[in-house]
Design brief:
mainly beta; 6 strands; binds copper (II) ion
Amino acid sequence: MTMTFINADEGLPHELVLTTQRPPYGTVGATPTVAGAAVPVLVAASATAARENVSSFVARASGTLYYVCSVTGHAAAGMFGVFQVVG
Ligand SMILES: [Cu+2]
């Protein structure tokens, strides 16, 4: 799977990890548990350019993963979602 992560937020940096760790998350976010499915912190976008990272990983089993922003405080504030692997 190829994942494109875009930070279009001009005010804040963001990060993305995929994890099997369920919410709730503390101030430090979550630990990545899927090899290759972590995006380093993308700095805030400029007025003219979003920040982008493309990463690839192999989902080895079906199930529920969570995508989580691990910048301090972001996951605790609700910056996460669910990712279903089927097949
Ligand atoms: Cu964030």
